[in-house]
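Consider the following assembly input.
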Amino acid sequence: MTGKPKKAAEINQMAHPLDDLLRTDRIPHIWCPGCGIGTAFSACLNAIKASCEDLDKVAMVSGIGCSGRGAGYIKLDSFHTTHGRAIPFATGLKLGNPELNVIVFSGDGDLFAIGGNHFIHAARRNMDITVICVNNLNYGMTGGQAAATTPYNAKTTTTPVGNPESPFNLPLMAYASGATYVARWTILHARDLTLSIQEAINKKGFSFIEVLSPCPINYGRRNKEKSLDTLKAYQDKSIIKNNAHPADLETDFSKSIVLGKFVDTDRLTCIESYDKTCRLG
Amino acid sequence: MKPSVLTGEHYMTGDEACAEGALAAGCKFFGGYPITPATEIAERMAARLPGVGGTFIQMEDEIAAIASILGASWAGVKSMTATSGPGFSLMMENIGLGIVTETPCVIANVQRGGPSTGLPTMGAQADMMQARWGSHGHYEIIALAPASVQEAFYQTITAFNLSEKYRVPVLIMADEIVGHMSEKVRIPEAKEIELISRLTPSGRKDRHKPYAAGPNGVAPMGAAGQGYHMHITGLTHDEKGYPAMSVDAHAEMMDRLMNKIRNNLDDIIITEEYLLDDADIAIVSYGVSARTSLAAVDEARRMGIKAGLLKLVTVWPFPEEKIRQLAEKVKGFVTVEINLGQIHLEVQRCAGGKAPAYLVGHPGGTIISPDRVIAMLQEAF
């Protein structure tokens, strides 16, 4: 782009490079200023564009919550299901038509509290789907309650003096449950994240990517952390350490946050194994 | 490939016949979870589906089971699950998702005694109101009740046909007694079985609106992967499928969801009558209790009591008009069911005070004896 700077009104009318994948008639989206979901979502759309030849065969499934609204903005087959149930819905979708490339895009509360059981079982059976979890450390849509990912001692509306519980280590859970691709990035690492999602989509089997993302309105506000502070922390405290052992990935923001690709292995997918085991002539 | 339709005469249980009915109807996906007394449906599907090009998966719980069949249905595949009381309770939220997203699928509930864990191995018919109202919000749903093993076969086919035609989850409200009894079943030739599949969209794919309904209130349904780029949500939505958070949009969507059933009652409601034309007393029953009632009618007639039977094959939507008509001419109603008064309340409501309605009920665990029906006929009339 060259020439004189554009005025705000002109910029507003410019096409977004991802417009072809967006339901532009549903914009503006619901995400708050400073929220990181849009960046994670852009990374996901860019990765889909780069890795999926036939976009007709791509389907996105979301649960409920802020990140769960992702399915409502992608202009592909998209399903906004019930709270926690994106993964079993996606499982049926994939088994019903194995040609589909099924991507679950949802939040930490949806995938790991109410939907936690489905996550571990889909990983165990190596269901050939890609799960992207935007982890903003709390239930944003309902106003900032404690989640299964909220750091110890953090303040939320349901832990007003500090969280007495400890959070899940999501990559460890994915690894222990049998996922064949596990990575963690933050929205600050948008290029790494995009490439990682591309890899995950191309990867056969259960792929999981955790995306750390700020929630300035509901989480940051109560923990004296503006959106930029969170991004600064991502910059200062993150260490990229591919192949780090998933047991060493606890998210202790007072120390460091390990990012990277931790698992990339191969085993029979659920469908391959079913065909091999159950369709005996 | 093995045949989907096991043409011939068989001796099998109601659960097995339900599975065979599903296969004959073209079911190609079953997401299940074991529970007494419905497990045999899942077991039969696990053994049979891979041989007919279908897929069986045992999910981690009943919530996942029903979520998976909704997903499979949107992949364009006829899908089913089966459960009993506790699992049925767990499925309620996603039955609502099936209703509001208009997803064809079939859910069999082989009823056992409740509440809670109740009587796992013993029959009941006490989930009938849960079938009607168990998911939150207001809605219409279709529920059938087989009274024999042969009916378990045929009604499962009917359930799939209604589900595909009206894009609504259809419930097969069986009971442990029918589910576990063995009887002779005749399975016809495949070509003798009438099958209905969902209407599919035509026209430009980029202009497809997932909820733009035809004259009967039902929209053609595309499948994921066909290029329609649909958005499907459990939120109140407009005909494009987009969330629409307004009073008017909600009313419009709800009207259509209700009316696609209410305007087609003649097609959906199936009842059978026995000696009802000249009857003074109308016995209303369904499922295994309809067999109790049939025996009671014969015995009553031998005793000179003019009783007749209205057997509900379709329990929901309830045959309100039929009960209203009967209320004009009979001296009273007796509802026979293995619960403490559920369909009885509907009969009473529709009788509208024009004829008294009595219940022969039982809290669950056993079939009702015809003697109890006779005793009620003698006592009340």
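Residues 32-278 of chain A form a domain with the Rossmann fold fold (CATH 3.40.50.970). Ask yourself how this observation constrains the way the partners meet.
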